[in-house]
Amino acid sequence: MLKSSKFRIASIHFSLFTPGLTFQPNRILAEMLSECKNTFNGEIIPLPVPEDAPPDFPRLIMSSEDKKFKLEVSPSRASILRYARPPENEVRVQDLVEVAKNIAEAYLRITKARVGRMAVVIVRYCEEANPGLELARHFCRDQWLERQPLNRPEGFEIHAHKKYDLSKYKVNSWVRCKTGRLSISPDEQKKIILVEQDLNTLVEDMERKEYDIKDIVDFWNTSSKELDSILNLYFPSIRNG
Q1: How far apart are CA 1 and CA 165, in angstroms?
Q2: In this structure, is the dihedral angle defined by the CA atoms of residues 185, 188, 192 and 198, taken in order, positive or negative?
Q3: Which of 94, 74, 81, 123 is nearest to 220 (CA)?
Q4: What is the pTM of this model?
Q5: Most confident segment among 83-87, 128-132, 191-195
Q6: Domain tally for the chain?
Q7: 172 by DSSP, 3-state: which?
């Protein structure tokens, strides 16, 4: 049986949307390296960008030496990413928030950006020998599983969207469950079920909203708890009926 407790975090992705930002990549790079040198001590990638590139296309990527942290910045968005890397047993959102807060504070201080929208994306996975069939069995009627069309699926995907109030925020909630493969080494892959969860404030509110660092941290903490609750709704520890 698929249970929420079986899923492990693969990555956590915090995004801040910054409409109207005057983007100065060279200054951002120099000052972010000074402010966050203990975090971003790895590869730095200034990206060549065509003139017609969309404003959310990354212009600069900064990484930690161990490749666990990444910062991607563009004129309209700054994204802080945390990846699970072996031999880590578990990545906890609560442990990331303080580090992400320091990165966000430095970025907003340097750029004087206005944050009009926020998002949190968590990707989780669990290993399964037959992920397509297991996912179909979890969500679908027995009559579809015993006969066609879902009696032997190699892959399976379900995608759901809701819009609602979360604390003081109006949010979109996206959940995508699908089959995939996890690369253990260049020669080894494991079959998995992948769950991507995305909570974000509304794009239609972006031009009139302005979130400060307290709002941002509150949203991150509130969203992480909400995403845990949503995962448990989709994959409860105890099945009813």
Answers
A1: 31
A2: positive
A3: 94
A4: 0.90
A5: 191-195
A6: 1
A7: strand
Start-to-end Cα distance in the chain: 14
Count Cβ atoms below 10 Å from residue 20 Cβ, excluding itself: 10
Please state, in angstroms and as integers, the Cα–Cα distance from residue 66 to each residue in 9, 38, 125, 173, following that order.
17, 12, 21, 31
In a domain? residue 92 = yes
Q: Which residues pair with 62 in a beta bridge?
A: 44, 71
Dist CA 202 CA 128 (whole Å) = 35
Q: Give me 219's structure tokens.
A: 């949203």
Find tokens 């907003």 and name the residue.
108
Q: Which residues are CB-neighbours of 57 under 8 A, at least 6 positions away?
A: 49, 74
| pLDDT tens per residue, range 180-237 | 988 777 778 899 999 999 999 999 999 999 999 999 999 999 999 999 999 999 999 7
58 within some domain:
yes
pLDDT digits (tens, 9 = 90+) for 106-126: 999 999 999 999 999 999 999
Strand partners, 90: none
Q: Hey, what amino acid is at 192?
A: I
What type of residue is 231? L
Is 241 part of a structural domain of the chain? no
Sheet order of strands, 44-46 included = 44-46, 60-63, 69-74, 77-83, 8-17, 117-127, 188-201, 169-185, 157-166
